Amino acid sequence: MTPRSYSLVAGIIFSLVALLHALRLLRGWHVLIGDLSVPASLSWLGLVVAGYLAYQGFRLSRARS
Fold first, then answer.
1. Dist. CA 48–CA 3, nearest whole Å
2. Cα angle: 54, vertex 5, 49; to 5 degrees
3. The pTM is what?
């Protein structure tokens, strides 16, 4: 796998993760891990981080070698 295709695949995967975080926030889905309720603020953080990593993956996949 070339670095360009690796970056593209990483960008797609992180885009999907960011989309799931956004859907959780928009739809008000609750996440439980055992008896612990995961706060929505973690999804805001996950949305920002996954969005940034997706952006970087797409940017690197378009960079000239």
1. 24
2. 15
3. 0.88
